[in-house]
Design brief:
There is one protein chain. The chain is mainly alpha-helical. Helix content is about 35%, strand content about 5%. It contains 7 helices and 3 strands; from the N terminus they run H-E-H-H-H-E-H-H-H-E. The chain has a 3-stranded parallel sheet with strand order 1-2-3, with helices on one face. The two termini are about 15 Å apart.
């Protein structure tokens, strides 16, 4: 779970972000939609139907924020009345308020967590981006055109919080993954950043403009 320090930092960050957003009437969301990518810190149900133990719908998760993980806390700060639906539950016009694609045990690298395949399926960041592209197509249909969808998406907030599993379920498991033998810690960080940059470029190509990236929590 996220530490208290991390939650406070994220809260301050979004308060500063919202100060730069156009404010609507009292009680209205500060942005049209909120799209979420990440791992278990943001998963609101995408893993619930997977064959996996990497779920966040049981204790000790949700003790600090009973209604959900950090993504739900941020959605409140943004002014949404309800919480952002997970990709597996969002239907119809639900997608117009945003979608949560996050998945427990997910990583930047596609192989991260694959050793847990039979007990820990996950939706990698690559797959999350594919799911987002499906949502973009839905929004274009609902708004009657790609141009209208692009304009709407450019006003929305996107958050991406991922990368811890690329260490704890990859680099730090030398008997299962070759990465610690192929890369020094510095080289591995560089390789992760390079792949992450390409994934973020894909997000940008599909009209994401207001994007917040969360750093890794302390490891070790």
């Amino acid at each position: 779970m996220a530490s208290t320090h991390q939650k406070i930092w994220w809260s301050v960050f979004f308060i500063l972000l919202l100060s730069n957003c156009q404010h609507g009437v009292y009680g209205a969301p500060q942005v049209p939609s909120y799209f979420i990518f990440g791992d278990s810190l943001s998963d609101t149900g995408n893993n619930n139907l997977l064959v996996t133990k990497a779920k966040a719908n049981f204790k000790p998760y949700r003790i600090d924020f009973p209604q959900g993980p950090i993504a739900d806390f941020i959605s409140e700060l943004l002014g949404f009345d309800g919480f952002i639906p997970s990709f597996v539950t969002a239907t119809g016009k639900d997608v117009l308020q945003g979608v949560n694609y996050a998945s427990g045990a997910a990583g930047i690298r596609d192989e991260t967590g694959q050793h847990l395949e039979y007990i820990c399926d996950r939706i990698t960041l690559t797959r999350q981006l594919i799911n987002y592209q499906l949502t973009v197509a839905q929004i274009a249909t609902l708004l009657r055109g790609a141009a209208a969808a692009a304009d709407e998406l450019s006003k929305c907030v996107f958050t991406v919080g991922i990368g811890s599993n690329d260490y704890i379920n990859n680099y730090f498991l030398p008997n299962l993954y070759p990465t610690s033998k192929e890369f020094t810690p510095e080289q591995y960080a560089t390789a992760l950043i390079a792949q992450y940059s390409l994934q973020l470029k894909t997000l940008h190509e599909f009209r994401a403009r207001k994007v917040a990236l969360f750093g890794l929590g302390l490891i070790g």
